[in-house]
Amino acid sequence: MKVIVPVAGIGVRLRPHTFSLPKPLLHVAGKPIIAHLLDPVAQLDPEEVIFVIGYKGVQVREYVTENYSFKSGFVQQDKLLGLGYALNLAMDRITGGEVLIVLGDTIVECDLRLFVEAGDYVLGVRQVDDPQRFGIAEVENGRIVRLEEKPEKPKTNLAVIGLYYFKEAGLLKSTLKGHIRNGKTTRGEIQFTDALQTMISKGIHFVPYEVQEWYDCGKKETMLETNRHILERRGQTPSIDGSVIIPPVFVSPSAKVIDSIVGPHVSVSDGAVVRRSILRNCIIGCNATVNNMLLEDSLVGHNAFIRGGSRIMSIGDSSEIDPA
Questions:
Q1: Distance between CA 195 and CA 179 in Å, rounded?
Q2: Domain at 235-321: CATH architecture
Q3: What predicted TM-score, i.e. pTM, was given to this entire model?
Q4: What does each C-alpha distance from 186 to 27, 59, 164, 256, 269 come to in angstroms?
C-alpha cells in the first residue's frame, strides 16, 4: 500500500505561528500535528508515503526523514489549485494498487487497519454541526451515493473528514487527470470531492466509515480544543515536586515546571521552562520560557520568552514579551 499525505497549505489562520513553521509541524499534546497522523500510518508498514509539500516544505521533509524509517517521497506543489490538483501530482508516482490518503491538516484517531478492511473503496465520515464547511456525503443502503463540496443547503450533516482508501488507484488517477485536462473546477479549484463523485457515477461503491475521534487544527481555537481532547483521551498527567498539576496535562520529560500551577488542558513541549506561573488551556512550544505569568487560552511558540502579567495570547516563535 502507498499513502499520500498532502501538506502544502500556508496555514494563514494560524499566523504568526506559521510564519516560521508549516502548520503540520505545530505542536499539539506534546508532538507535531503530523506525528499524530504518521505514527498510526507507520504501523501499516506502507510501501511508500508520498508527501505533497509546498510552503516551508523543506522543514516537513527534514522532520519526516529524521523521525520515520518508512520509504518517503516528496512532491512539490507549485500552485494552490485545490486538493484534487495536489493529489494528481502525487498520483504521478503511482501506477496502480492500494492507496490510502490522509489529509495533513486534521487529526483522525481510528484503527487504520480496520478502516482499510471496511471495503474496496472507503471514505471516512463524521456527523458535524456545521455541514456547510465540508464536503458532505449522502448515504443509502450502506453506500455513498452522492458527494457535494461545501453545499449551501446540505442534505445531510455527514462530513467527509480527510481519510480515503482505494483498493485500486487506477480510476482515481485517470479521473483526476481528466478533470485537470478539462478544466473542471468548483469555486475556482480542482476539487477532490468532484473526482470522487465522478467515480460514484461510474459505478464505484464507496463505503462510509464513521470516525468518532476527528480533530481540526485550522486555527488557534480549534488547536486548543484538539489539545484538550487528546489530553483527556490520553489520561496521563505527571506529578512534579513543588508545583500543582491539575489533569489532564502533558509535560515533556525535558521540560521544567517550577513553583507553578499548571492545568487543566496544558501541553508543555520539549525543553520549555515554566516558572512561578499559572497556566490553563495552553500549548507551550519547544524551548519556550514562561515566567511569572497568569496565562490561559494561549499558544506560545517555540523559543519564545514571556514574563509578567495576566493575558490571553498567541505569540509566535522566537518572540519576546517582557514588560520589565
A1: 7
A2: 3 Solenoid (2.160)
A3: 0.89
A4: 33, 31, 20, 50, 40
User: What is the rounded CA–CA span in Å between residue 98 and residue 45?
Assistant: 13
Domain 2-216 has CATH 3.90.550.10: yes
Dist. CA 296–CA 263, nearest whole Å: 9
- Predicted confidence at residue 133, as pLDDT, reads 78
Buried residues in 107-125 as b, exposed as e (16+ CB within 10 A)? bbbbebeebbeebebbbbb
Bridge partners of 250, per DSSP, are: 267
23: helix, coil or strand?
helix
Q: Where are the domains of the chain?
A: 2-216, 235-321
Buried b (16+ CB within 10 A) or exposed e, 240-255: beebebebbbbbbeeb
Cell, residue 208: 462510509
What number of other Cβ atoms are within 10 A of residue 130's Cβ? 9
- Residues 2 and 151: their CA atoms lie apart, in Å, by 31
Average pLDDT over residues 211-219: 82
